[in-house]
Amino acid sequence: MGFEIPKIRYTGKIKKVTLGYGERQVKIGGEGCYPFYTFEGDMPNPPRVAFEVWDCEPDDWQEWAIEPFRDVLHDPVLWAKKCIDVYGAELIALNLKSADPNGMNRDVEDVVEVVKKVAGAIDCPLIVWGTSNDDKDAVLLRRVAEVCEGKNIALGPLSEKNYKQIGAMAIGYSQVVMASTPIDVNLAKQLNILLGNLGVQDEKILIDPTSGSLGYGLEYTYSVMERDRMAALTQEDTKLQYPIICNVAQEVWKTKETRLTEQEEPRLGNEVRRSILMESVTAMSLLIAGADIVIMRHPEGVRLIKEMIGELTAE
Amino acid sequence: MDKHRIRFLPLDITYLAQDGENLLDFAMDVGVHINASCGGNGTCKRCKVRLVEGRVDFCQDQALSVSGHGEDIVLACQTRIKGDAVFEIPLESQIDRSALKSRKSPNILSAPDSLASLGGISPDPVAYKINITLEPPGIDNNMADSERLIRVLKNSHNMGDVKINLNILKRLPSLLRNSGWDVTLTIAETDMGLEITDVQVGNTPKKQYALAIDIGTTTVCGQIIDLWDCSKTGSRVIGESADYNAQISYGDDVITRIMHTRKKGGLKRLQEAVVKTINLIIDELTDKAGIERSFISHMVCAGNTTMTHLLLGVEPRYIMISPYTPAFVFPPVIKGGDIGIKGLDNTPLYLFPCVSSYVGGDIVAGVISSGMAKEGDISLFIDIGTNGEIVLGNKDWLMCASCSAGPAFEGGGISHGMRAAKGAIEQVRINKKTYEPMILTIGHSKPLGICGSGLIDSIAEMLSAGIITENGRFNRELPTDRVREGKDGYEYVLCYGKETQTGRDICLTEIDIDNIMRAKAAMFAGCKVLLDSAGLYFNELKRVIIAGGFGHFLDPSKAQIIGLLPELPLERFVFIGNSSLMGASLFALSREYASEAERVARMMTNIELTNNNRFMEEFMAAMFLPHTDLRLFSKTLGVR
């Protein structure tokens, strides 16, 4: 008798979620196996990378992060278009930095105006990332849901504190929500149950497990995501069977390792290469743990990750 | 007893009621909603129903004098069922019919009336009295008094080696002579072997009483037992009394008490405080029953490990320091005088053996009173209290664990929480349409606060009515004034100030709900980990025995809604109330239980949860209503 490779018995499936509308809409999820275990099951929709775009001109970015976008950083619409036209973006993640009460604290309606413009200018799916301030997001993201009617955007993060206000509007305007919890399997599940009870459809939920950067707790996120997927795929835990989104860019690019130049710290080597690898390795790890969408900043990092996804999902 | 047919309109459903039953209690039992917020004492006048036909009795004159209504309007809480009757429930109290029809037959468990127990057990106490007559000494037989006495015991009662201690010896010469050489001895089994602990004039062997005392961290309860006579009701328990443990002024929980012992004189202060409480309880018990202390032959106390240490004045500090080592688990038999119990200087005091630092004699007492350690079937014993203790097993094996649940179920840490005493809200129903409550208090008196069973009911009802969500947060968009923003965040008003004893509104806040969720999550997680450790599933349990002083009632279906109890058929749940006191009384009554206590204590394997990762994981999973793992509560969720 020949040797047979042991296989995992999967009993669950990740739900399919569609983002965007029309020809460029993107389908994610639907996996019936662990990430990239295509020898054991189906992975009908490969993971995707979303390009990060800010709603205002960043004032603290590294020179090497500015460089690919220097000509468009002043205008979110041009910025998003460049990501699509020049760097081949399939999804745009608009980060509403300017609304943050601890930062610029821009007025809700001003920010909504930017969202409206960007949403109107692009035809690929849009992800709108709020401030992570429960109160501000409760107001802001509700308006975002409203003005993006018909665009089937993903909006979030929704927390245990504001899921009701935002969730209700997301149902009303048929948007996808990103349920965000602080790196914990049970808390993730609880928020999903609450959203379900509120009436949010299964195909309208993404899990944001809260990501950490390489060197800043990545392994913690990694193991929680692994456990999410184990529960979802092998323990019939229906309330964890949702695609996972990880906001890699905002975590990685604030670390010391992406900021120090080689001159300041020769031991760390070339800063451009180093930063791109920091972002790529973080994204790669999270994809292997189960992420369906990773949000990234640097076009070179995106290229590396797309290459990796292509190789791992090749027939 | 006659049963009466009670029909409720417009629901048009009929239930059978006992003669003399209170209408509001009855409606609560059968699940018919009638608004009521004063707990059933006739002041809120909201439980109005129209008597369509039939015969009733009234508790007070005021029952009929509801202004502005016809004569046929009665207050349900002031109405006693005296015959078949038809009542119409007014519009404001009506609940939608679908909700009512889906309700299964009620299954509310009442704690057994401990005054009625112990009747069926034949006494065989660890201390017993025998009457002997001695031949007076003469010049030809001038053997010493003590040896003379012992010789009689040896020759006529076959007792080889009986000890007499100095206290008895001092009284012996005059006693024997005053009695005309006819005395009654109390002989107790102590650490010395057989020991004469009392000598009384005359023939009094059947005048024998014992004290059973449960020393709780919060409450001390005592019973006095007549060892040879049963009352007309068949009970040997002739008195019961309870009081707060005076140690409370030195801290609410065992840890702060242990901390206090590290202060100068702290250990002695705590010992004196609890002895003071015990003395007060003994005073009350003996006064009420009209019994002289001298007829008390022995005392049995059950307490948790810390309480047992403090009662004996033994250093408890290593209980709280890893690796959590108590000074002893098998306590010595002492005399009342050793610790300052008044009037019972030479009376032996037996303490229940403990198992570990956090599973004490109270749990051993609970287990022997539940009988679980004598059965082949596997039971789970849960003592819901500040320290939640859980025991799993059968006659062959027992495993136990203790988890810190916090004082929520005893009313602690809850803004309007209280002990299960008069005035405590203990049953709550909430109308799913109007969000109006139906409230019953202990003793039907004006509400004073909420006890554990009222909290379980309230949270289950608020969840079922959609007032709170599964994470314990209030739904702020409901069309009711009862959900409002208070000084501690959102809250639900159970009773308005005009209906309460204090004049202040009785509310449940989000913080309260959070505390109860923590308590129930700890209890459930403890059970889950203990079962997992034994490789068992909940459905393999034949019986779940619930003990604790959180109330007189427990509705297991409500406890399941909040995820405190596992989802099992309701008939598998048994509620036994204060099982520690019951165990102490059994020990006092029969040596069979005394040896059973020792067997149980030796048999229990303790699973430490304090440093258990699985416990933390399960705790987080249970911090939700009913639980994050919906499959554990699929039926409950289906019903809701």
What is the H/E string of chain A?
EEEHHEHEHEHEHEHEHHEH
Structural class of the helix and strand makeup of chain B?
A: alpha/beta
Class by alpha and beta content of chain A: alpha/beta
Low-confidence regions of chain B = 65-69, 95-106
Oligomer: heterodimer
Number of helix segments of chain B? 16
| Estimated radius of gyration of chain B | 27 Å
**Cα end-to-end separation of chain B:** 36 Å
For the residues shown, what is the average pLDDT of chain A? 96
Count of extended strands of chain B = 29
First-to-last CA distance of chain A: 28 Å
What is the CATH topology classification name of the largest domain in chain B?
A: Nucleotidyltransferase, domain 5
Shape of chain B from CA axes?
A: globular
CATH class of chain A: Alpha Beta
What kind of sheet is the major sheet of chain A?
8 strands, parallel
What would a concise description of this structure say?
Helices cover 39% and strands 14% of the residues of chain A.
What are the main properties of this structure?
heterodimer, A: 315 residues, alpha/beta, TIM Barrel, 8-stranded parallel sheet, two-stranded antiparallel sheet, 10 strands, 39% helix, globular, B: 640 residues, Ubiquitin-like (UB roll), Nucleotidyltransferase, domain 5, 5 domains, 6-stranded mixed sheet, 16 helices, 26% strand
General description of the model:
The complex is a heterodimer of chains A (315) and B (640). Chain A has helices spanning 63-66, 76-85, 108-121, 134-147, 163-172, 185-198, 218-234, 248-252, 271-289, 299-313; strands spanning 16-19, 26-29, 48-54, 91-95, 126-129, 154-158, 176-180, 205-208, 245-247, 293-296. Chain A has 315 residues and is α/β, with parallel strands linked by helices. In chain A, helix 4 (134-147) runs parallel beside helix 5, helix 5 packs across helix 6 and helix 7 (218-234) packs parallel to helix 9. The radius of gyration of chain A is 19 Å and the shape is globular. With 640 residues, chain B is an alpha/beta fold. Chain B folds into 5 domains: 3-106, Beta-grasp domain (Ubiquitin-like (UB roll), Roll), CATH 3.10.20.30; 127-201, Ubiquitin-like (UB roll) (Roll), CATH 3.10.20.880; 209-361, Nucleotidyltransferase, domain 5 (2-Layer Sandwich), CATH 3.30.420; 371-405 and 521-579 and 592-639, ATPase, nucleotide binding domain (Nucleotidyltransferase, domain 5); 408-516, no CATH class. Chain B contains 16 helices and 29 strands. Chain B has a 6-stranded mixed sheet with strand order 13-12-11-14-16-15, with helices on both faces. The longest helix of chain B is centred in the middle third of the chain and has 24 residues, at 266-289. The radius of gyration of chain B is 27 Å and the shape is globular. The chains are: A alpha/beta (315), B alpha/beta (640). At the A-B interface, helix 6 of A face helix 15 of B.
